[in-house]
Task: inverse folding
């Protein structure tokens, strides 16, 4: 997902007006507008740090395995609307300090992999890096959500180095295969349509599609292993 540019003051006021009175908005902007912009820039830096780490891992592992385990990397910075909505829904104060303390998914990096095994290999290599601290891990591949959703979620803390300080920032990292990402994207679009009829049927079909997607991942991974073994056998024959 593309990263939203740093929000301007007018846009931030418009978002806040949906949550606060005009007087409260003016007070919030006067107090927090600049600190909010600074915090969002720090999250953007954290995204860049994490994305770079995965680009390096992809390059290294492509040499080792003769293929790229990462298909693509997507990044996003949570929108002001989503931030305010989540703080309000959870009963947290609408302050910059509250954002950093209470929300773990402001900065997001999604790593789309070729096969499920690549997800675990990459995540383990990523977590072994000495400047990455794991705060939370949720494995929805081994234990899918009831609707069929599959992904590996990590909340990590990583340092960013500014001109006068080092700051530890939280980043949510999601790992999916191509089929997991395809399913999740379409499921989101379908589920959030208004007045959707036959919801029970739709949910059942979405779950079945998720199961089929998982089966395809398993079959494609098996084919990849067969191809890799054949290549290794040919290389051994040539070198003997």
Result:
């Amino acid at each position: 997902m593309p990263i939203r540019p740093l929000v301007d003051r007018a846009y931030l006021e418009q978002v806040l007006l949906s949550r606060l009175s005009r007087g409260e908005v003016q007070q919030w902007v006067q107090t927090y507008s600049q600190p909010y912009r600074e915090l969002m820039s720090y999250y953007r830096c954290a995204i860049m740090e994490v994305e770079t780490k995965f680009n390096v891992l992809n390059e290294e592992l492509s040499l080792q395995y003769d293929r790229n385990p990462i298909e693509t990397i997507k990044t996003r910075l949570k929108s002001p609307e989503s931030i305010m909505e989540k703080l309000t829904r959870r009963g947290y104060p609408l302050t910059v300090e509250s954002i950093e303390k209470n929300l773990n998914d402001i900065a997001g990096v999604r790593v789309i992999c070729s096969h499920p095994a690549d997800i675990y290999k990459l995540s383990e290599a990523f977590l072994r890096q000495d400047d990455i601290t794991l705060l939370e891990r949720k494995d929805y591949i081994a234990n899918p959500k009831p609707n069929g959703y599959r992904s590996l979620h990590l909340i990590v803390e990583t340092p960013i180095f500014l001109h006068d300080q080092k700051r530890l920032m939280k980043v949510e990292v999601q790992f999916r295969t191509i089929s997991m990402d395809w399913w999740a994207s379409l499921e989101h679009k379908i589920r959030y349509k208004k007045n959707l009829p036959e919801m029970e049927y739709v949910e059942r079909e979405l779950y079945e599609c998720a199961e089929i997607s998982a089966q395809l991942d398993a079959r494609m991974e098996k084919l990849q292993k067969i191809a890799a073994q054949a290549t290794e056998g040919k290389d051994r024959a040539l070198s003997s």
Notes: The helical segments are 9-17, 22-65, 80-89, 96-102, 116-127, 178-191, 199-239. The radius of gyration is 21 Å. The mean pLDDT is 86. The chain is about 55% helix and 20% strand.
